[in-house]
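Z., the sequence and structure:
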Amino acid sequence: MNDVLRIVDMIRYDFYEREKGKYSFSKSIEKKVEMGFNAEHFAYIRRKFGGQSLDEYKDTVKVLKEYLRYASEKGLRVIVYFNVHWYNLDVAKVHPEWFQVDFNGKIIDNVYGNGVMSCVNTPWRDYSLKAIREIAKEGPYGIFLDGPAFRPNGCYCKYCRKMFEEKYGVNMPIKGDLRNPYHRFLIEFQEDSMARYLRDAYKACKDANPNVLIYFNGEPLRPNWASGRNNRKLEPYQDLVGAEGGFIYQNLMETPIYKPGMTAKFLEMVAPNKPRIIFNASKHCPWNRIHLTPAEIKILCAETLANGAYYWLSHAIENREAEKTFREINSWIIGREDFFKNTVNYSNIGLYWSYSTANIYGGVVPESDFTGKTIRFERDYMNSFLGAYELLVRTFNQFKIVDYASNIGDLDLLILPNCAVLSKDELNKIREFVRNGGVLISSFETSLYDEIGNRLKNFFLKDVFGVDFLGIEDYGLNENYIKLNEDYYLQAYRYVVKVNVTSGEKLALISENSGGYYQKIVFKGFPAIVGNKYGKGYSIYFAGDFFRKYYRYKFPRYISYFEKIVKKHVRQIISVENAPRSLEIVLRRRDNTLFIHLINYTSELKRPIENIVPIHNVVLNLNISSIKNVETLSGQKIEYSVGGNCLKILLPKIEVYEVVRVE
């Protein structure tokens, strides 16, 4: 499975073609191949809308052998799409015991507005495993399971309740009550339920046909308590992994433009040795009949490729502009597969993802097809993480996402953006990282809670930070400042942690809360930022919600200060001249070849983006003393020179996406 997969989903498109009497297997396959795709998600559906009916998958099984014959002739890999989460209400009348219920025992019947969702702990699992075996026997390239997942308010069926109470000896808590001490048991129970199901689905597939690949719709990077999908637990039972990193919803100004790349980094952390698929909906969710602009679709796929994943694109209705865009995107790869195969993240910075902070402390759960809405919490880890991610992107720093299972020993810098809830094993690993010479940047309530969510009297990492915890003050939206020196200030945090410095040094001071605007600004010596030598390493602690504040307000001074401290303490892999901060740079490596991915989202001040503004004469500097060859994905000619252990590359023009290969 070394090919660069270019997957399309035209299930709904094919349905409309059949309605119009224009459909044939050969015509459908030829269209997909002509647009440049080499794989597809396929299902033969008969419903116009709504959740699936009972035994709908059998329509696909009936035609599969014939369809595979046509597809094989054209070199199109067929991955059968099997919906394992959404059914119409008629199925619930026949099998009410199959579906998820809420805390009060009522079947949850508003999935996507109308429909029900299966529960993996009910007899439905046997029905679905039988279907997987039937599909696998037909010999497709693979099977994709869309779902399963738990609902944000489920499941409390009799099967779940019995299994939970037998294991934990307590009643099931209300889902979403993160402060409930038993809620973490519910998270674990649902994660383990999902893992058992996927283990059995994998076995069912391989028993029927060991050559058929199987994977499912995994969790994007976000708190996973709502869905019960933990990618770490699910990865062993998949041949490739995927997640909806490119499903973007509603007001796109509230969606990180780098969401597909962030999801790809997350999946690479979990499954570095498996193909990773980012599902990029070419629609502006939830409007299925309206495509995104070409610029938005290109950015989705560029973000995906730049971070070592392959893309899946949906195409539901006829749209010549979208089809032209698909051809262009696929042309980036066809004949240039070497730019994308078998590469690894090349970075020296780790951004820490804390599952327990996300699931216990609290964090925004972004809208998806499975949650149906955005779920917000007062104590928000997610926005701190996104703020740190964006700061790294805006400052051209090379980084990877890491978690409790990652090897952090090879990093120069580790960032903990308000990682409040961490286990002792995690904390001791972090302490050892700094003691051995690593640099740590952390913020706000990092290490201030134990692993089950109880607030501690002091930071667990107090010796690393060089401070003692005193308390937290809400500064509101008032005019307050962080003073770096007599002439330079930053906007103050919203939530300020008052600390007493023990072994550390004050790098900046926080003003007393002015209580308003145009008031006297007073500094009494409380630190805003503390640096501390610890062992062979160094810690920088932001005594407030620095990363969350940046994510909400995008302060330029936050960017410049963050850039300055990283440059001071960490070796720079690449430096950039004459480039706006709307250029994202991602480095990947294969043996002695370096791939520099450049994504340009310079545009109008709005989303959806309609027009990308090309940028010119960008200079890249890398610490490389000798080279064999430098070339670009687009084929444009570039100037480069080597001198003083530095490779300097001049790129005349970057439109949406470019890759520079350095051997």
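The chain has a mean pLDDT of 95. The domain at 6-79+123-149+193-342 is CATH 3.20.20.80 (TIM Barrel).

Let me know what you think.
H.
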